[in-house]
Design a protein that fits this description.
The protein has two domains: 120 residues, Nucleotidyltransferase, domain 5 (2-Layer Sandwich), CATH 3.30.420.40; 154 residues, 2-Layer Sandwich (Nucleotidyltransferase, domain 5), CATH 3.30.420. It has ten helices and twelve strands. It is globular and about 55 Å long. The two termini are 13 Å apart. Bound molecules: zinc ion (ZN). The site of zinc ion (ZN) has 7 residues, from helix 4.
Length: 293
């Protein structure tokens, strides 16, 4: 039975794994994201030292990335604010070193594909996968196809109402200041409150503000894409009380306008954590690799 490789390239950590097309993981490793040379080197070392050579390797990467197969920079991380990673040829580096077919997509599209095949989006054709952690990004499917388009969606960089009297923090996106990512991703929590999210107590006002901004994003995407489900992963969402807070605020924002029982009666099944947990990204990368038959 063939095996497939997956790499989840995250801004904070990389996860590499070998698995089967059933979603069974055979080996897995994770390590912090440092420089491109060191981090990609560790990923290659992992695959080259496995007993079985994978049929192909899938990569889900933080971005922005170039997904146009006709572009000379296909497979690159392009205009990222992450230091040292701008203009990094991720897919080409792996393809040349391994001499294997390589599939490449955004980290959130890969995770969405993993959830569609084995997790919380099975049987759905239009849904979103959001990650709220080092950055805030979204991917997913519309009518059964992964969302690509001109470049790829950059859902974290939408503008949301920002009441500067209630929240004077100016935002920390290097491109936009107070876009949604600049107000609500992990670095914004740390910059606004002086403590990382995991150090904040459960009753800290940070969480209500966080749920408020995320709900504004979800309401926008519900009204634009009409997703059948929204899956929320990433480090910030490990604060479990966030789910109920966000669900309540989304219902308030929609104000009964979207007449779907999925939202009105079953919102706890509509806004959900990834069923694949912390493996959504790397399993999704393996799912991408299986598409290269
Ligand atoms: Zn931005």
């Amino acid at each position: 039975m063939p095996v497939y490789g997956g790499i989840e390239c995250g801004g904070t950590k990389f996860v590499c794994a070998i698995g089967r097309e059933t979603g069974e993981l055979l080996s897995r490793i994770e390590f912090p994201t440092t420089t491109p040379a060191e981090t990609l080197g560790r990923a290659l070392e992992f695959f080259l030292s496995r007993p079985q050579t994978p049929h192909s390797i899938g990569i889900g990467s933080f971005g922005p990335v170039d997904l146009n197969p006709r572009s000379p920079r296909f497979g690159y991380i392009t205009s990222t604010p992450k230091s040292g990673w701008r203009d990094t040829d991720v897919a080409g580096t792996v393809r040349r070193a391994m001499s294997l077919p390589v599939a490449f997509d955004t980290d959130v599209n890969a995770a969405a594909l993993g959830e569609a095949r084995w997790g919380a989006a099975q049987g759905l054709d239009t849904f979103l996968y959001l990650t709220i952690g080092t950055g805030l990004g979204g991917g997913g499917m519309a009518n059964g196809r992964l969302l690509h388009g001109l470049v790829h969606p950059e859902m974290g960089h939408i503008r949301v109402p920002h009441d500067r009297a209630a929240d004077p923090f100016p935002g920390c996106c290097p491109f936009h200041g107070d876009c949604l990512e600049g107000l609500a991703a992990g670095p914004a929590i740390e910059a606004r409150w002086g403590l990382r999210g995991e150090a904040l107590p459960p009753d800290h006002p940070a969480w209500d503000l966080e749920a408020h901004y995320i709900a504004l994003g979800l309401e926008t995407w519900i009204c634009t894409l009409s997703p059948q489900r929204m899956i929320l992963g990433g480090g910030v969402m490990r604060h479990a009380a966030m789910f109920d807070a966000i669900r309540g605020k989304v219902l308030t924002l929609l104000n009964g306008y979207i007449q779907s029982p999925e939202i009105l009666d079953r919102i706890d099944k509509y806004i959900v954590p990834p069923a694949l947990g912390g493996d959504a990204g790397v399993l999704g990368a393996i799912a991408l690799a299986t598409l290269l038959q």
